[in-house]
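1st attempt posting a full record on here, be nice pls
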Amino acid sequence: MRTFLLVIGLLLSPFSTALAAGVQVREGDLLFVTAGHSGLSAAIDDATATQGATSFDHVALVAAGAHGWQVLHADEKGSRQQTLLDFQHDVRGKQRQIVVYRLRAAPAGAITDAVAKARTMLGKPYNTAYVLNEDSYYCSDFIERAFRAHHVFALQPMNFRNPQTGEIAQHWVDLYRGMGMDVPQGLPGTNPNDMAASAVLERVGVLQTGAL
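the predicted structure (as tokens):
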């Protein structure tokens, strides 16, 4: 009976969402969202995917909140906070998957500091140009900055060329032409696929996005 009540207590806990889905998330985990097949998502995948690996076009940070798990991230709506349930609902609506990754050996204080830093960046607009600045962020930029004080992730030259053809997709050409810019090939930045492939992370598993 005592064991039964303990299990019920866990399932009713504000932090039980991921337990019910079969993957137990922790604060500091990164949620990578699988890439779509059209538009911006496909363009990101075209330039940054690794052959044979799962392709991602978004990444977010798990944080503990007063009423359950929260997700801190930067997307087309800006740098914002959602409940984990709402984040899962949005991903399900796009028919994508969430794959959970975790730091293999987090430096002392890195997760606490990253969550605190991420909260200071909420409310900033989305960086549609992907050229680093202090006034707007894109998804992997938001995560890299959150962990920057502990040097967890490294910036690297951005690539907009398809690795097979060497050509820059027309999506990027049109996007930057509309901004009056050249495609920022080679400027420092980051992307979800390279971040997921980093040796500092380990794959935990797929977080279900169905009804919980």
